[in-house]
């Protein structure tokens, strides 16, 4: 904050005179300076990645949108990923598995994080005000086994710990695209959205995910991906979700929808 407009004589004074000047500068009293500082502190947000590339890791456009909107919202960001092997490696030019090739989720996620990333095992609620999970098939392959096992999936131990810890601490959790299945599996009774529940001629190619979410015991809420209705806020559980690339639509709609998710996550932090 800018320096207080005090007379130069006050800068070296002590005792009642200085206190009186401070009270005049802050009608709410000295406590108002401290409370303002707390309100102005940036929200500290953890972003959990699952690799690099839509078909076997984090969807890069979604990760970028999350980071841009967090930056615009003034948040302090630290990225994390589990230090585990990927389920498999996809040749994105062919859409097919690359045989006899293996990659590490943390190492691949570091590409998106520009090297500034830590093992998910180091992520704690004490260090962060919120956590966000971008989408991409990595959420269903590397952070969980949803891509293979559907409603019977298992969630990575560290991912499960993080979700439960943030939920217990009452700190907001943001998820987009396919990643809401993680909350549906781990947080009993959570409300999430992955968009629509019918394919609608290919516009919602992964609409079947909504059915699996219901089978997991979570509530699915139908939402659009556009800016008008782009995110669902489960205020009870502080879980914010948006469909993103679950919908076949223009990139700017995806970007705007993720922005709404991020904005609501930041709002829930109270920072």
TrEMBL record:
Q: What is its main location?
A: mitochondrion
Is Cytoplasm one of the keywords? no
Q: Where in the cell is it found?
A: Mitochondrion
Q: Which GO terms describe its cellular component?
A: mitochondrion
UniProt keywords (A-Z) are: Mitochondrion, Transit peptide
Q: Which InterPro entries match?
A: Class_I_gatase-like (IPR029062)
**PANTHER family per record:** ES1 PROTEIN HOMOLOG, MITOCHONDRIAL (PTHR10224), GLUTAMINE AMIDOTRANSFERASE-LIKE CLASS 1 DOMAIN-CONTAINING PROTEIN 3, MITOCHONDRIAL-RELATED (PTHR10224:SF9)
Please state what the protein is called: GAL3A protein
What species is this protein from? Chloropsis hardwickii
Q: What is the lineage of its organism?
A: Eukaryota, Metazoa, Chordata, Craniata, Vertebrata
């Amino acid at each position: 904050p800018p320096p207080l407009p005090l007379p130069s004589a006050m800068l070296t004074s002590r005792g009642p005179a200085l206190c009186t000047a401070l009270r005049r500068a802050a009608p709410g009293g000295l406590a108002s300076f401290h409370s303002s500082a707390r309100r102005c502190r940036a929200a500290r947000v953890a972003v959990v990645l699952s690799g690099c590339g839509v078909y076997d890791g984090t969807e890069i456009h979604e990760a970028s949108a999350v980071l841009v909107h967090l930056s615009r919202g003034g948040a302090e960001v630290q990225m994390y990923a589990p230090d585990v092997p990927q389920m498999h490696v996809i040749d994105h030019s062919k859409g097919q598995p690359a045989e006899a090739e293996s990659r590490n989720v943390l190492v691949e996620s570091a590409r998106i994080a520009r090297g500034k990333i830590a093992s998910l095992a180091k992520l704690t609620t004490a260090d962060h005000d919120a956590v966000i999970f971008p989408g991409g098939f990595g959420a269903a392959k590397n952070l969980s086994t949803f891509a293979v096992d559907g409603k019977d999936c298992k969630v990575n131990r560290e991912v499960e710990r993080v979700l439960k810890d943030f939920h217990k601490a009452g700190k907001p959790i943001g998820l987009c695209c396919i990643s809401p299945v993680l909350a549906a599996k781990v947080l009993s009774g959570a409300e999430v959205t992955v968009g629509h529940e019918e394919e609608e001629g290919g516009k919602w190619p992964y609409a079947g995910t909504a059915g699996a979410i219901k089978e997991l015991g979570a509530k699915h809420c139908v939402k659009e991906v556009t800016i008008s209705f782009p995110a669902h806020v489960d205020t009870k559980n502080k879980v914010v979700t948006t469909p993103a690339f679950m919908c076949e639509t223009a990139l700017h709609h995806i970007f705007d929808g993720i922005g709404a998710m991020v904005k609501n996550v930041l709002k829930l932090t109270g920072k």
